[in-house]
Design a protein that fits this description.
Mean pLDDT: 80
Number of strands: 4
Largest sheet: 2 strands, antiparallel
Oligomer: single chain
Structural class: alpha+beta
Number of helices: 3
Strand content: 5-15%
Helix content: 40-55%
Length: 108
């Protein structure tokens, strides 16, 4: 798929231009198709898992009570029990799977 231009592009003959245009039409076939889109966490997602994870993240952030403290050195984050690094991945996994189960059960 390499394009070769002549030394002077304005001097290209109509047959050369036609060949390049024809080649571009062959490789750039843009089509429109319909896809299922899931909404979760205020956005659109292409997969159910991503939408459920975004919704789980939004639920956790709604009930978050994280804090921070500042001293002479800088600012330190003090995570709440929901955002604690040891618990957060497990909570996210369980919430995501639960939301996926709830969505699939609601579908006919």
């Amino acid at each position: 798929m390499s394009f070769q231009l002549e030394a002077d592009p304005l001097a290209a003959t109509s047959s050369t231009t036609h060949r390049v245009t024809h080649h571009l039409e062959a490789i750039m076939a843009v089509t429109v198709e319909t896809a299922a889109v899931f909404r979760g966490g205020g956005r659109r997602w292409f997969t159910l898992r991503a939408a459920c994870a975004a919704e789980a993240r939004a639920l956790l952030n709604k009930h978050c009570d994280c804090d921070y403290c500042e001293d002479d050195i800088g600012r330190y984050e003090l995570p709440c029990r929901l955002h604690h690094p040891d618990r957060y991945p497990r909570i996210m996994k369980r919430l995501t799977q639960g939301l996926m189960r709830r969505y699939r059960a609601s579908q006919p």
